Every structure is written in C-alpha cells, then in structure tokens.
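Reminder: ligand-aware prediction takes two inputs, not one.
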Amino acid sequence: MTNKIINTSKINYAMIYDIAIIGAGPGGADSAEFAARQGLSVVLFEKNKVGGVCLNEGCVPTKALLHSAHLYTHASQGKKYALSASNVSLDLGKLMSRKKKILKKLGAGIKLGLNNHNVKLVEAEARLQGKEGDIFNIEAGEEVYKAKHTILATGSEAFVPPIEGLADYGYWTAREALEVEELPESLIVIGAGVIGMEFVSFFSSLGVSVSVVEMQDKVLGAIDREIALEVQKAFEKKGVKFYLSTRVTGVKDGRLQAENSEGTLELEGEKILVSVGRRAITRGLGLDRLEVALSRGAVQTDSYMQTNVKGLYAIGDLTGQSMLAHTATREGVIAVKHIMGQKEEMSYQAIPGIVYCDPEVASVGQTEEELQAKGIDYIVKKVPMTMSGRFVIENEMVNGLCKILTDKAGVILGVHLVGNTSSEILVPAVMAVQDGMTLEQLSSYVFPHPTIAEILRVVAMS
Ligand SMILES: Cc1cc2nc3c(=O)[nH]c(=O)nc-3n(C[C@H](O)[C@H](O)[C@H](O)COP(=O)(O)OP(=O)(O)OC[C@H]3O[C@@H](n4cnc5c(N)ncnc54)[C@H](O)[C@@H]3O)c2cc1C
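Here is what comes back for the chain with flavin-adenine dinucleotide:
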C-alpha cells in the first residue's frame, strides 16, 4: 500500500459516515437512498450531475428522442390506422428543449429523494486518499471526509478506438448525437450494438440516410441471433445499409475506409457516430493508493460487490459486468446489504436487456447461441407477435417474434422478443427466468386480455 502524508487540517472530524459513495448515477444515487432508508449515514459525491450517464446522456435522453421519433413515424404512417395528417414534421429544437425539461425534472426528483432521506450530497470530484485502520479518507473539494465503508460507482465513458484520420474529420459519440441541432443528410454509425442501433433507429426514422459498419457478423452484440436478424431486416426495409463483418481502417479525404472479406470499401457520410463500447472510469480515483485490483480495466469484485480492499465496494459500469442502469441499481442494493451484514449474492442470470429501437427488442436469460456453446439441450417455442390481438391492433403489417427457450423439463432458460412494445411486457419473463419457472407454471397465470403480454402465455401453451 502506498503511504501518503494526510493534511489533517482539512479533515472533517465532525462525522464518520457509515458509507461514502463516489458517483451519483443510478448505481450510486439509488444505493445512497437505499442505505439511508435503512438508517445508515451516507455521504454521496458527484462531480457532474446527479443521475449520471443514465439520466443525463444515456437511458433517459435517448428514450425521449426515440419516443418522439416513434410518434413521428406513427403520424407519418397514420393512414395505416385510418388517420390523415398532412405536413407532419418534427421540430428538433423543441424536441431538445423537451428532453432538457425531462432531465431537469427527473434530476430534481433524485435530489429531492436524497435530501428527504438525509443523504449528504457533495457536488465535487472525489478521490480515495487512503485508509486509517478501518476508516476511509476521501478528498473532495477542500475537505476530507471519513467513512467506515466506501462504494465506488463512477461509471463508464465512450470508448473511441484509434482510427487513422477520424479525429481530424470529427466524430460524434452518443453524447454529441444527443445534442444534435440540425439533422445531417447522411450518417455512418460505427458499431451496431445496442446504443448504436438506438441511434440508427432515431436518425433513420427522421429521414437521415444511415449506413452501419460492424465488425461482428450480426447486429446487436449478444442478443439472440434470430431476433437480431429480424431487427436488421426491419431497418433494411427502411433503407438502412449494413456492412457486417467489416472493419473500419481509417478516414481519408472525407470518406470512411473499411475492409471485409470481399475487399476494401469507402463510405461517405456527413457525420460519423462512433458507438463501439464503453469503458470503466478508474483514473483519478486514487485506486492505486489502496492497491485496488482491476480486471480488464474495470474494478474487480466478488458476488457481494466487494473489492479486494476490506470495506471497499464497486458497482455499476465501473465493474464492467453488464453496463446497464438496472444492474447498477441491483448491485448497489447487494453492496449495501453486505455492509449491513446481509449476505445476498449478485446474480446476472436474469438481467433484462432492452433495445428501444423501432421495433423494440426485449430479452432475458440465455440465447440459443449461449446454450449451444455450453452444450445444453434446449427446446425452442416461438410464435409471431401477431398471435396477440393487441399487437395486431397496434402494429399494422408487422409480424414480430416471441421466443422462449426451455430445458428438456420445460424450465424457462431464456425469453427473446422483437416487436413493440416488448420492453413493457418483459417483467413476467424476468421473474420466470430468475425463479426457474416452467412453461406450465407461466401459463397458469391469468394474463389480462387484450394485452401484448398475453403472447407469453400463448407461447407457453403452444
Ligand atoms: C446512449 C446511452 C444509452 C443508454 N441506454 C440505456 C438504457 O436504455 N437502459 C439501461 O439500463 N442502460 C442504458 N445505458 C447504460 C447506462 O447509462 C449505464 O449502465 C448506467 O448509467 C451506469 O450507471 P452507474 O451508476 O454505474 O454510472 P454512471 O451513470 O456513469 O454514473 C457515474 C457518475 O459518477 C460520477 N463520477 C465519476 N467519477 C467521479 C468522481 N471521482 N467523483 C465524483 N463523481 C464522479 C460521474 O459524473 C457520473 O455522474 C445507456 C448508456 C448510453 C451511453
């Protein structure tokens, strides 16, 4: 451990908090409130805005934009639903103002919740200074705070690979794409993962000509291949061009250079959006002072979210595990419970994964590809979403797909859906996967009619 002389004149001796939390994204802010509700004293540090990436440049703003894009599509295609609307247009300026208003309102709600539960919010960058016995010293602003336990929740940032000529040409990450003031005529999206495809959906819905370059041979990363193919086909119908198994090699004379097994290609796009993944933010946190163990650039934890340092926990994107807001929140609860002496292990078996593109994708549990790789025998049950009356009512000329994977005994191992609004109907599937429910058990519940969720019962009984 590195020794450091502590400037005792700045130490806030008044209080030794039960928990100090660094980072007020969904992981940090939710665990702060949860811990405070349990009667623990909590200090929470945030260097930017409460709500973190999720509220300010991730989950929430993307969905605000996608919602308007979805309404725009519906209004433009009103004829399908017996409506006639002329001159349908989307005012980007007003959309951005609405987005800001939403973020402000939700941010204020988080602050109010923290305040109501007496969480001490320190709006400054924090770093670990060291440990004196079992007590952590944390520097923030001009002060040093003391805590019996510390939870690190500093999140992640966009990873931009070193592509020759890219920086000179200029590029967007999600952050810039969310602040767009004027729609480009054309856009190249590098990376067809979840975030990339949500932007593909937004921009293509508004008439931008979109090309997508992806290294893998499919879109949507780890999402079930059959579902991913449905999404790709839906976007191809809308005119989006996909270059799969293709590697970007550079940007030259305003053109994106790429290569695949057929040779080299050049693409023209007014803007380039880079969306190839995110990496944990570990720098400047003082991790080296406590010799905190990292694994592939992220903080390593056990199933209670403990790091290798006693009393020090890490949650959310910083751990590089699942990079989703709801995972961060759950990991925070696990960490706080462990601090309180309750040993509940984190499980990643039933983490829902949603892609809020149009059509939406919702998924939980294992995919066919994962089961095959593990050599697990499985049964596939699938039906088009059009087996739900409500889906037919709301989705003219769209089929969708609902697929449930079980073991030989009928225990549900994975549920994968494509079609609107599958995000809202996934929760019973999450419960089924988490609780090891069988198809028979799932089909024994009474599902309200007519709802899209009924599709789960239909598949279970098929
Ligand atoms: C475009 C986009 C769309 C997304 N959509 C979804 C979605 O629909 N659903 C979903 O589940 N996930 C989504 N995600 C992922 C989600 O945003 C993250 O998984 C989630 O925000 C992680 O939460 P976190 O608490 O770990 O970290 P973050 O939300 O990143 O918060 C970390 C906080 O720590 C602060 N911080 C960092 N260092 C310090 C320091 N030294 N001192 C004080 N404060 C510090 C940061 O300022 C930040 O506010 C999306 C991400 C992006 C980029």
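Residues 1-9 have pLDDT under 50 and may be disordered. The chain is about 30% helix and 25% strand. We will return to this case in the review session.
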